[in-house]
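For the sake of transparency, this paper describes our internal protein records without simplification. Because each token names a local backbone shape, the row as a whole describes the fold. One such record is reproduced below, unchanged from the form in which we store it:
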Amino acid sequence: SHKKSPEMVLQIASLLSSDYRIHWAGAFQDPRYEVYLKHMAKAMGLEGTVKFHGHVADMNEFWKGKNYLLQTSVHEGHSLAITEAMARNIRPVIHNYYGADRQYPDEMLFNTASEAALMIEAAHWHGFPRDYVRNSGWTLQDQAARIHEVILGVKR
């Protein structure tokens, strides 16, 4: 989706050392973006760096061996992909879209492609993303408790 700013992923990939790989999950919503992104990956010499997986049926398997989640969206609500990644201790690198600073700490956010590349290559983030999920009230148990409170409030 254009909302995900996929061209920014390629810009960031072009700044990373050749040791890094971008694994892109998800079906293309617009065939023009598929043509464009695959063309640009080739034109930028990123064919061996960027892998388009398309729709992934088993995300549990897909997440294995991944170290970072690169999120480049220009707009998000509460991104389940970010929460899923952090719950697996995968470090998020999140574009500073409007409102991101109210959801995530500054050390997870970037403004420019070069900042994102530096964050990834410097392994800048200390601590464990999983702890952030636990401490933010995003666990299944936390959400179930909130839903229970809402249901009790409706019954009164």
Notes: The two ends are 43 Å apart (CA to CA). The beta strands are 22-25, 50-54, 68-71, 91-95, 109-110.
